[in-house]
Design brief:
The complex is a heterodimer of chains A (about 250) and B (about 325). Chain A has about 250 residues and is mainly α. Chain A is about 70% helix and about 0% strand. Chain A has helices at about 5-10, 15-20, 25-35, 35-60, 65-75, 85, 95-120, 150-155, 160-190, 195-220, 225-250. Chain B has about 325 residues and is mostly beta strands. Chain B contains 1 helix and 24 strands. Chain B has a 9-stranded parallel barrel. Chain B starts with 6 loop residues before the first strand and ends with a helix. The chains are: A mainly alpha (about 250), B mainly beta (about 325). Chains A and B meet through α4, α10 and α11 of A and β17 and β23 of B.
């Protein structure tokens, strides 16, 4: 196999996966795949990316949830009551609007980061499948405040160094936003049902350990697409759990 | 609408029991919210809903009809949270949306959408069609005989799905995921700290993504299966009950192999644990043994609970006896 052959076919793998190739080209490509390990690797990674993109989409919050939460929060700037209070109990949890906005922002970061991580495997062609990327905005936040998720198409046209900078930026924002949310939970833990808070915190710690494991592994093997996807999965999971805690509070006030 | 009670307020009986039956029609849906206690829903052949509830005398159960929505919830004076045990019978076609805090939820015999959510409690759904959703923070989720798309999540407990058909999406954090007797062309099951087990048919062109960070992953798979299997791990191992021909080792501890025509795509990932392929018959036996152990553990818990209750009753009796003796003196 020559480099030219590789270059010729590697850009067509996405079309192949989507079933968009002409029968003749398809047959040619399949013949090529039989002898080209790198192309088979790319194809496998693409398949993995498609599966991961589907996961990312599934894990996003219901689009109609946040406007409702944000609207209610915006009215008072803070959530006045905990979920126990919904039933008349005295428990309290205050999550500020910026903190809730942070949750939304984190979701955007992770969505974008997920795409980047999958790409970071280093083998994607320029025409990757496009994952759905959602920008979530809440009242009181501006577009400038929110990290912007980038589509694979956008990043694929940028130089690789730019991708890395972008991801680094998003990861920094991600850490900051997660930190804010965790601080909010810590600040209000005394007002919540102690068992539930303990469970949530224990599980956040569990996810943190998984994230740390994945990061350590990635440091040793940065181009491993499984590890990249695995880290993304854990980050998403953490967001989901924080989101769940926040949503429980917010929806029970009404 | 047939639910002529636009707003029905059911005041608790002196015996602290609410019992009412009203007619419903196709298109109506039932929403139940509960703070503590349980929600038990079963089905019958009538186009009617029976709500029976046991609660304290200070509580009242409200049943409200608003368009197609029928809302059931309890309240008490001064907004104090109340514990209510609901026993509700509905037509099998009726969509259910059940929500609780310290609430166990059980649903049986439905042929409709079922959504159940609790913070601390067990969710058990037998049946359900179209869309079955269950979510618990602290409590196990059991699903049996669901049809359609099944979406389940727990934070700190296990998920068990059996005899179900359709797309299955399961997310856990600190808990095992057992998928048994599943017929599905799309399975996504993922946990952080727990084992994942899949025992079911692999559909042609089906996609099966199973992953765990810190646990073992076991897939029941016949040697004659048609699947392209992708294995990924970092610190873990791979083991198979039958020989497989590894075609290609990919970067890191990752490799692929194909069984039969390779039509189904199976993606197995465990960061730190063992990924194992078992013959279905052997795995069934393991599942059976595990089931027996779980049952034994459950019985043991019940016995301990009864013992504790007996002890409490005995202590109370002794206190009463001492008091009456003091009074006599």
């Amino acid at each position: 196999m020559t480099n030219a052959e590789f270059d010729r076919w590697t850009d067509r793998l996405s079309e192949y996966l989507d079933g968009d190739l002409e029968p003749r080209e398809r047959a040619e490509l399949e013949l090529h795949l039989e002898t080209c390990d790198p192309c088979r690797d790319v194809l496998e990674d693409l398949r993995g990316l498609v599966a991961n993109a589907a996961r990312l989409e599934d894990s996003l919050p219901e689009a109609d949830l946040w406007p409702g939460i944000a609207h209610r929060i915006a009215a008072s700037k803070t959530v006045p009551r905990g979920w126990l209070a919904w039933f008349g109990g005295g428990a309290r949890l205050s999550i500020s609007l910026p903190q809730l906005a942070a949750v939304a922002a984190v979701l955007v970061v992770v969505s974008g980061g997920g795409v980047w991580f999958a790409m970071r495997g280093g083998v994607l062609p320029t025409q990757g499948p496009v994952a759905n990327v959602t920008r979530v905005e809440t009242p009181g936040t501006t577009a400038e405040n929110l990290p912007v998720a980038t589509s694979p198409a956008a990043t694929s046209e940028a130089p690789r160094g730019a991708d890395a900078q972008l991801a680094g930026y998003n990861l920094t924002r991600y850490d900051a936003n997660i930190g804010e949310l965790q601080q909010a939970l810590t600040d209000n833990r005394g007002d919540l049902d102690s068992t539930t808070v303990r469970i949530i915190e224990q599980n956040l710690a569990l996810i943190d350990r998984a994230i740390a494991d994945a990061r350590r592994a990635l440091a040793a093997d940065p181009s491993n697409s499984y590890l990249n996807a695995h880290l993304t999965q854990q980050l998403q999971r953490k967001v989901r759990l924080l989101q769940k805690a926040t949503v429980l509070v917010a929806e029970h006030q009404g | 609408m047939l639910l002529t009670l636009a707003t029905v307020l059911l005041t608790a009986l002196p015996a602290a029991r609410t019992d009412t039956t009203f007619s419903v029609r196709q298109g109506d849906r039932l929403n139940v919210s509960n703070f503590g206690g349980e929600i038990v829903v079963t089905s019958w052949g009538k186009n009617a809903v029976k709500v029976a509830a046991e609660h304290s005398g200070r509580a009242q159960v409200d049943v409200r009809g608003d368009g197609p929505n029928i809302d059931v919830r309890a309240s008490a004076r001064h907004g104090i949270p109340v514990r209510v045990d609901y026993n509700i019978v509905v037509p099998a076609w009726m969509p259910l949306f059940l929500k609780g805090i310290y609430t166990d939820i059980s649903v049986k015999g439905m042929k409709s959408e079922v959504s159940a959510e609790t913070v601390k409690g067990e969710i058990r759904i037998e049946g359900g069609e179209g869309f079955v959703r269950a979510s618990s923070v602290e409590g196990p989720v059991y699903i049996d005989g669901a049809r359609g798309r099944v979406e389940l999540s727990t934070v700190n407990d296990n998920v068990h799905v059996s005899g179900s058909k359709g797309e299955i999406i399961v997310n856990a954090i600190n808990g095992d995921i057992d998928l048994e007797g599943v017929e599905s062309s799309l399975v996504e099951a993922s946990t952080v700290s727990g084992n994942v087990m899949f025992l079911g048919d692999l559909h042609r062109d089906g996609r099966y993504n199973l992953s765990t960070h810190n646990g073992n992953l076991t897939l029941g798979m016949a040697e004659g299966a048609n699947a392209t299997v992708s294995i990924s791990t970092f610190n873990g191992d791979f083991d198979s009950a039958f020989p497989v021909q590894i075609e290609r080792t990919r970067h890191g501890k990752r490799f692929n192999f194909t069984l039969g025509s390779g039509s189904a795509l199976v993606n197995l990932e465990s960061f730190d644990g063992t990924i194992r392929l078992e013959r279905p018959v052997e795995l069934k036996e393991l599942v059976r043994i595990k089931g027996v152990r779980l049952l034994q553990a459950e019985k043991l818990r019940e016995i301990r609970q009864v013992k504790r209750e007996l002890l409490r009753v005995r202590e109370m009796s002794e206190e009463d006896r001492e008091k009456s003796e003091k009074n006599k003196k």
